[in-house]
Amino acid sequence: MRASRASPVRAPSTLWWGLLVLAVLALLVMASAGPPELPEFGKVGQADTKPAQRDAVPPTGTRDSASAGPGTVVETIPVPAGAGPLAYVPGTNEILVGDGTTGNVTAYNASTYALVGNLTLDSTTNGPGSMAVDPALDELFATVYGIGVVAFNASPLGLNGSFNSSGDVPSNLAFDPEAGDLFMANGAMNNTTVVQAASHDVIAQVAVGLPGSSLLYDPLVDRVFETFGENYPIGVIDPVNDSLVATVPLNNSSSAWLYPAGMTLDSQNGYVYVACFESPTVLVLDAAAGEIVGDITVPEPPAYVGSPDVVYDSWNGYVYASERAQNYVAVINPANGSAFASIHVSAFPNGFAFDPANGTIFVEAGNYVNVIATARPPPPSLTGVSVTPVAADIDSGASDQFNATAACGGSTCPPTVAFTWSLSNGLGSLNATSGSSVTFLAGRDPGIDEVNVSASLNGSTGVTASANVTIRAGTPILALISVSISSVESVSAGGSVALSATPRCSGGSCPAGVEYGWSSNPVDGSFNPTTGATTMFTVGSVAGSLELTVEASWNGSTVSNSTSITVSAAPGTSAGVLGLPGSDGYYLIGGLAVAAVAGVAAFLMIRRRKLK
Predict the structure, then answer these.
(1) What are the angstrom distances between the C-alpha of 238 and each of 59, 90, 172, 200, 225?
(2) Is the pLDDT of residue 563 over 80?
(3) CATH code matching the domain that covers 477-575, chosen among 3.30.70.240, 2.60.40.1080, 3.40.630.30, 2.30.42.10
(4) Does pLDDT of 168 surpass 90?
(5) Amino acid 434: pLDDT
(6) Per-residue confidence (pLDDT) for residue 392, from 0 to 100
(7) What is the per-residue pLDDT for 40?
(8) What is the CATH code of the structural domain delimited by 384-472?
């Protein structure tokens, strides 16, 4: 008989309800505690984390926000595939735009916005996610999903290799120009990769504890700041030791959780401004102190897609933050810590790039790149140019340097001032016709010349200056020598030919006292005299070609020159045989024949005796 199944023991219903309540309470406690924070290794400003061999750069720039407006959109560049990350290349004055849905990068002139060219980074549809620039090499780096980081040149556009460390999924890039290193935030692993930009070699892996989101190199404190995710502190990396040296908690005036994203540095006050995803808050980080010192509320919060960004405009001292929800860019005045204006742009503004040469901000916005130009004083105009020295006295054959300085009505002239140099009388030469300095080389004749320079800026010309140069008849320098031969080009063995040498000296005629020496190659014949500007050369007995050389020296300088003559056999003589003159060759052949016959006869006599 089958045994009956025992009935399961059932817990009282009140026990189940009690366990459920405990589980809910545990979840609430975990949520209120928030995510685990990175260990705090100390503050940025600690002396033991700042090696002496890399000095911090002091804040730079002068705010002009008192007279500058927030700016307006002055140009809209269509990007049919969708605008992706932006990068400004100072060496080529170009703005690089990554296509959002393709593997292409397109270059535009940052001043005229004209198309320069495009480059395919990936044959698939994976577009670049982030870009960084090495300004010393005009080389760019772009993160491409599935590849890692692609390196390419700005001018001309061309691929320059790719690299990736095992397991890396680079999400953002930052370049340290002082060390020439590229920092790669890793979106899938808890490390940040350091790459030597010139060689593309991975040189370090920085353990940061979390996947990275965004990076910023701050030259003022020589630190790399990295954001990680929702409510996580900001990491601080020492680029000298390639290590995480501090974390910055997200202290703010609101109780909302924050998701730090894009960052920018205000080079005037030394603060780092941090945009926050899904929040209208922009955090203010005192980089030197290593702490959040404030937060700014922008008028409209970013949308729940994409990553917001911020950028600093060094021309007017404002900070610009993208507001994706309402298609605006918020304008923040760091002087009072408030957002005071919004600029309407195309759909979904996201990343920025600032052009410090033209004072313009580029915004990726949907299928467009908007160009924002801020109101500022008119550019400086060229008012004059000067040359130093204004006069110079130099010896013939000597040189002197002349420098040009442009004036712009009390303002600092931009580096785009062009200089053009010329001479009035041509009594010398210039090593260049452009640039801010040239070297004048005096000719051999004394006299007076003028070194002229003209300056131009933004198409304006007519600003000129001159310097007088007096060329003295200085100490002559032996420059070269010529050798001439009598009209006879061929001479018989034993014959003679007349030679003469003519020296030339810088600064005029050569003085007395130049010494001469004559020689032949091969040595066959004699000179009479062996020294002097003129000589008679008597040919030897060997027919063929002879090279006759004269060497002149004076006051430590030596020059030489050569000429060639053809020597023929003397009249009535035969060149002989075997290279021997006259009948000597025949005598030699006859002697050899007699010796050969005698040798054969002796051999036959010896052999005959042996046979007997």
Answers:
(1) 19, 26, 18, 20, 9
(2) yes
(3) 2.60.40.1080
(4) no
(5) 92
(6) 93
(7) 41
(8) 2.60.40.10
CB atoms within 10 A of CB 146: 10
pLDDT tens sequence across 117-146: 989 887 766 778 889 999 888 899 998 877
DSSP E strands, 110-248: 115-120, 128-134, 139-144, 148-153, 158-163, 170-176, 181-186, 191-196, 201-207, 214-218, 223-227, 234-238, 243-248
How many Å from the N-terminal Cα to the C-terminal Cα in the chain? 140
Q: How far apart are CA 587 and CA 64, in angstroms?
A: 107
**Do the bridges between strand 368-373 and strand 399-407 make them parallel or antiparallel, or are there none, so unpaired?**
unpaired
Question: 350: how many CB neighbours lie within 10 A of its CB?
Answer: 23
Joined together, the tokens standing for residue 275 give 């945009």
Token pair, residue 514, equals 């130049």
pLDDT surpassing 70 at residue 17 = no
> What's the whole-model pTM score?
0.56
Mean pLDDT of 244-268: 83
CATH class of the domain whose range is 69-373: mainly beta
Of 130, 145, 140, 53, nearest to 98 (Cα)? 130
What is the rounded distance in angstroms from the CA atom of residue 154 to the CA atom of residue 97?
12
Residue 47 has pLDDT above 50, yes or no: no
DSSP H/E element including 589: helix 584-611
pLDDT band at 543 (very low <50, low <70, confident <90, very high): confident
Q: What is the pLDDT of residue 469?
A: 94
Q: Cite the beta strand spans of 380-459 per DSSP E.
A: 384-388, 391-395, 399-407, 418-423, 428-430, 437-442, 447-457
Q: Does residue 375 have a pLDDT over 90?
A: no
Contact 372, 74 (CB under 8 A): yes
The sheet that has 201-207: what strands, in order across it?
170-176, 181-186, 191-196, 201-207
Round to whole Å and give the CA distance between 149 and 161. Answer: 9
Instruction: Answer yes or no: is pLDDT of 18 > 80.
Output: no
Per DSSP bridges, beta strands 557-568 and 490-492 are parallel
Question: 318 is written with which tokens?
Answer: 């404002």
Asked if residue 203 lies in contact with residue 186, where contact means CB atoms within 8 angstroms, the answer is no
Token pair listed for 145 = 């999903």
Task: Judge whether 207 and 190 are in contact, CB under 8 Å.
Answer: yes
List the one residue out of 178, 239, 225, 210 whose CA is nearest residue 39: 210
Question: Which two structure tokens, joined as six digits, stand for 536?
Answer: 């008679």
Q: Where along the chain do its domains lie?
A: 69-373, 384-472, 477-575
Q: Which residues partner with 546 through β-bridges?
A: 565
- Give the number of other CB atoms < 10 A from CB of residue 510: 20
